[in-house]
Write a structure and sequence with these properties.
Blueprint (H helix, E strand, L loop, with lengths): L2 H19 L10 E7 L10 H11 L14 H13 L9 E10 H8 L6 E4 L20 H36 L8 H19 L8 E9 H10 L7 H15 L5 H4 L17 H8 L4 E5 L14 H5 L18 E9 H7 L6 E2 L4 H4 L10 H4 L2 H23 L4 H4 L8 E9 H11 L6 H17 L10 H7 L22 H7 L3
Antiparallel strand pairs: 1-2, 2-4, 3-4, 5-6, 6-8, 7-8
């Protein structure tokens, strides 16, 4: 790429960034994005992203050592541009950025920033942090009538969240007491921890009535390549104005320190036709599940080279997953499994953090077709009085979504009123090594309720057809016991209170009370 062509492309990119940045005026309180870490500053010297790409590309052909340095000569610029245009993008994986995302919706987090394997996030949890009243996205381009209705609908959800917490407190406390040995309540530190646990579980269950437009905060680390991808994809119809504004601000934050990123970006693709998203047949999907949360779709195939599963159990039990380096255990990567699952937006936000089991998830706004399809947590489902209140709240929340659409509130805003409880249907696949990693985490009694029961359905299917892997299809404490690792529970003081390591899979469900 010549210097003149690069400059023209840069000007075009800057116009798009200007367009996206102005979208912040569309929100009463737009997301705040701050760059907190960059990777390309050895010895305090900034090496521009474009130069990192050129230096690493040059190393591929250099007879000796290529120096990592700023390279602004025409040849280096040409190498950077030509490798970018040709799709040789590993050169863009050496630079990484960590952003602090503040006041961004859970909707756009789920639908855009957490849909691929190419990121790391540490997100404020609605399981452990009480939601703040009024902490949701409010658009500014609504009429007075639309705005009043929208804010009233959000306030209704936020108020219901605190009311549900109040109703749940005694039921949750009863179950926590049943789950934990009575002696622990006589020890002051343990008593304080369990009382705190009651509050956190109450919040966790109540969050199902919060709208998906509720704000969240997190640290988000991505490579330069993923930032280029986000910008390139940003005009796709599933990217909302909030997403575009956030992406522009991520770029703008980098530009303050390293303006060469503007030479790396390509204009967003915009020559596709907008169309109604084709959603899989929900009725057929649910018939296949037959009342379960998850079911195996594809039978794992064996061939001439992988007829027998062999693995080192201690390496699979290891918390660092070092089995990936073991030639024997890593053979598990040759066995592929695919499952169909149904879980709520709240549950799916937990599921998608396991990025090695790939899936395609439609954005929630596109998924919504007016059907009031939602998940009810266990402790609510088993309490007639609380369930009646919960169902009334769900009915009103979905009614508010439908009314917002009738009032011509744009769909990307109207669907932010959808509750966290809305059901999502997912087909996901991955290799057996990565599935075992996931199950090892999510069959723990501390795991979020839905992801626990989804995982339980999955391993029950697998143990029937692959009994040789059964010792690894347990909670982490059970696996640790099987291979002789002490202590049994790796969670320390966060222990669930139950001897799960002594149980078979068939016992897991009946003992899980919360």
């Amino acid at each position: 790429m010549g210097i003149e062509k690069r400059e023209l492309k840069r000007q075009e990119v800057e116009l798009v960034l200007e367009e996206y940045t102005k979208l912040g005026e569309s929100f009463k309180s737009p997301p705040r994005i701050a760059l907190k870490l960059m990777s390309q500053t050895p010895n305090g010297e900034l090496i521009e992203a474009e130069s990192v790409a050129a230096s690493t590309a040059i190393q591929c052909y250099a007879p000796g050592i290529a120096f990592m340095k700023n390279r602004n000569d025409e040849k280096s610029i040409g190498i950077a541009g030509s490798t970018l245009d040709a799709g040789h993008h590993t050169t863009r994986l050496h630079v990484n950025y960590t952003f602090q995302m503040v006041g961004i919706t859970r909707s756009v987090t789920h639908d855009i920033f957490h849909t691929t394997p190419f990121y790391n996030s540490e997100q404020q949890s609605q399981r452990y942090v009480e939601a703040r009243n009024g902490n949701y996205l409010v658009p500014t381009d609504l009429s007075t009538e639309q705005n009043k209705f929208y804010e009233n609908a959000c306030d209704f959800s936020n108020k219901a969240y605190f009311e549900i917490q109040s109703e749940l407190k005694s039921s949750v406390e009863k179950r926590v007491r049943e789950m934990n040995p009575s002696g622990g309540w006589k020890v002051e530190k343990t008593k304080e921890r369990l009382e705190d646990k009651i509050q956190k579980i109450t919040q966790e269950v109540a969050r199902y009535v919060l709208p998906i437009g509720q704000h969240t905060n997190y640290f988000h680390t991505i490579s330069e390549l993923q930032l280029l991808r986000l910008f390139r994809a940003s005009k796709m119809q599933n990217f909302t104005n909030e997403a575009r504004f956030a992406i522009a601000n991520m770029v703008n934050e980098v530009t303050k320190i390293d303006s060469s990123i503007l030479n790396e970006l390509d204009q967003p693709i915009n020559d596709f036709e907008e169309s109604e998203i084709d959603i899989d047949n929900k009725e057929m999907f649910d018939q296949f599940l037959a009342g379960r949360l998850s079911r195996l779709i594809s039978q794992p195939q064996t061939d001439l080279f992988t007829q027998k599963l062999v693995y080192d159990a201690k390496l699979l039990a290891d918390g660092y997953d070092v089995g990936m380096f073991d030639p024997k255990t890593s053979k598990l990567r040759n066995t592929f499994l695919k499952f169909a699952s149904k879980l709520s937006h709240a549950g799916d936000s937990q599921r998608q953090r396991h990025r090695r089991t790939a899936s395609n998830v439609y954005d929630i706004g596109a998924e919504y077709k007016g059907d009031h399809d939602y998940m009810t947590p266990l402790v609510i489902r088993e309490n007639v009085e609380i369930k009646a209140i919960y169902d009334q709240v769900m009915y009103k929340m979905f009614e508010n979504v439908d009314r917002a659409l009738e009032m011509n509130i744009p769909k990307e805003y109207a669907t932010l009123l959808i509750p966290n409880a809305i059901n999502i249907r997912v087909i996901e696949g991955g290799d057996l090594f990565d599935w075992i990693h996931r199950w090892k985490q999510r069959l723990c009694y501390l795991a979020q309720e839905e992801i626990f029961f989804v995982s339980l359905d999955q391993v029950k299917d697998l143990e029937k057809i692959m009994p040789e892997i059964k010792p690894m299809l347990m909670a982490p404490c059970g696996i640790r016991k099987a291979v002789g690792i002490s202590p049994r529970c790796p969670e320390g003081s966060r222990w669930c209170g139950q001897p799960v390591y002594n149980w078979q899979l068939k016992e897991y469900e009946k003992h899980r009370l919360i």
